[in-house]
Amino acid sequence: MFIIIAGLTKAEAENYSNFTPFGSRGIFQSAAVLFFAYVGFDAVSTMAEETKNPGKDIPIGLIGSMTLTTFIYCMMGVTICLMQKYSNVDENAAFSVAFEAVGMKWAKYIVAFGALKGMTSVLLVGAVGQARYLTHIARTHLLPSWLARVNEKTKTPINATLVMFVATAIVAFFTSLDVLANLLSISTLFLFSLVAIALLVRRYCVRGVTS
To answer: Which residues cross the membrane (predicted)?
Structure first.
């Protein structure tokens, strides 16, 4: 919220001209890469057994998180475009450079702190969700059963969490960020498509009845 409010105080409407400088191709290319920013909302569903009222809490969490995330990202996109022309936006530190360019050098430190906190939250949510995916799969015996072990006190999957942290650290250490972002976006879109198809199959196909 600080970025949006502080950034809009330095907004210049003329910077918002030429709304699609790279055409429709640029829009679709950006959307494909930025899709990873929304990854994680599905992790809410993996927490069903750890919530008091999953029938009510899970839908609220899913819809609420997606609505809020979409609104904030749209407002941040509008803000950066009003602060600077698209050609001047730094691809590595967009808001930090933009605030420095408009004379608010002190704000870049707040942005940097927020970015670090944001990355920590993303890593936590990703680890929590993926660990529970492994746990559920292990319960179906498609993975080793020791991955389904749950701590008696905290009721959280211990082994699955440790395996996920180690695997994530190894992949992140040896793979470039661009490759990871593209791979994550492609794999997520593919998996969500499979889920949609699976729901249709479950809805219209009955085992032993539908051919």
So the answer is: 29-48, 60-86, 106-129, 158-177, 183-201
